[in-house]
């Protein structure tokens, strides 16, 4: 184990030293600090508006995190996908004379270190924003950190390294856990209907004795409530069961025989992870699964640069969900969330209801502006530059299908929320237009960064520049809307925001088409 700890320590040190030699690292540090300060600064107002700035509110938020994350972690361990193994682990750690259990614990230790930092942040926020006494928060941070990680590590060993469990048994275990979660969600839906769809249902659900009595997950919540809020009959009993289960699982994990049969699965995971890292370095979204393709065909109409569009269309038709992807799912979820928010809080936001969807759209676009688009993949193909057509047409047809996807995603984020926010037809169409402009700005910024910025700042600097410039555009539109809205009224402010969005999009399109004339493909 000493050798593994030395390896972890040395690897971490070398990665830090290597990162500090890259200029892009300092840009990322500045951006992360600025973003963290922004979130911390706005967190106080959010907590006050939600009336959760007290110990009970702290337990609700942490309980929600436990309920959301812990079942997912257990399922990933059961599927042998919850630990990170790299190519260096495959070639150096696996063949070494180290017990397979210790290899698993070493991989889990990396997660525990991040959990330790996260617990420190939670403790600081608990004292500052939720007014929890230092003694209570220290007790929770230390005791809960130890018990949670011992229990989760033992569960990981028993699921990941257990050689007696068959694939059928593991599948049954996962389905059972899914069933339990589904029953709990149905119970939450029952409470939601029973208590007239109030936000208080979330508190009632997470504090309900039934939830606290759920093994492991609920017992963890009861353990939290005992340390922060004090003893009750339910949380005392559940805490005892929680600690006893941690002790029992520790004994079972210690006695379990593990000879390293999981190495084969871990090697496959390491290969997939290496591919995902390579995709991530190019700014592409790296999924942990391989999409299933179907047979498809397309009729090519037109010639020259139009061939780019039809080739992309053929690629999307091979996908089971066609042009719908992760952005579509996020847009739909955001639209439903906005609709629910508007249903309960329209009176509070009626003065600026037309800005709610554009605000959320801008935030989503900003968060994902660092990722590559279809255009970044297109310029890696040499034939794009060999097609005898103008750069403007090449750029248009290479990004056309992305504009179509933006329209579809704009409809998804708008259509449901439009009813509860009381938007008329014109406002709905203009809201979709704003979303399309935001996505188009991201596309054309990619052209600029791929042609110019990457030569000087590299891939990381390119992504930071995208984030910064996209944020600047959003800030300009928001500031113009706020200022003109305050002076001339909400309708004028909304119109000015749309005008500036369209103008910036057209300007970026012209700049991008000019830059594309001198662009060269790169890996």
UniProtKB/TrEMBL annotation:
Matching InterPro entries: Put_ABC_export
Pfam families hit by this protein: ABC_export
Span of the signal peptide: none
Keyword check for Disulfide bond: no
Ranges that cross the membrane: 25-43, 58-78, 112-132, 138-160, 172-193, 234-254, 321-346, 352-374, 425-444, 464-490, 496-516
Domain of life assignment: Bacteria
Keyword vocabulary terms for this entry: Membrane, Transmembrane, Transmembrane helix
Stated name of the protein: Putative ABC exporter
Record organism: Lachnotalea glycerini
Lineage: Bacteria, Bacillati, Bacillota, Clostridia, Lachnospirales
